[in-house]
Task: structure prediction
Amino acid sequence: MTRQNRKTGTMTSFGMYQNAKKAGGIDMWQLKQLERLHEIEPDTVDVAIAELLNKEPKLREKLIVGAYIDGEINLGKAAELLGIHSVKLRRQLLSKGIPVRIGAETIEEIVAEGIAASGIRESSE
Result:
């Protein structure tokens, strides 16, 4: 399956959104209802999603990589969320054929990369 980066329009192959109805999957209406419930009861949905992502680390990784592909987070933030060094993540992405954006594009991305770098530095000490 391919996925389009919202900012750049680049198409990327990414198997995250395969047929959701296979093997008792979730229907799109359920996702829409979760989004609506989040507007009313954000804590309930946040806890449920956090529990799911803690239980399913591969899903968590796919969501983070998907957010990176869509340009919602930068490489530094993705690496921070995955708990790995950005160089390792860069290698993993390239090995999967996922384009790597080099350099920060906004002030927010520069700040996020600085925070990610300081977090990695602190955890290695």
Summary: The first helix runs from residue 28 to 40. The chain is about 60% helix and 5% strand.
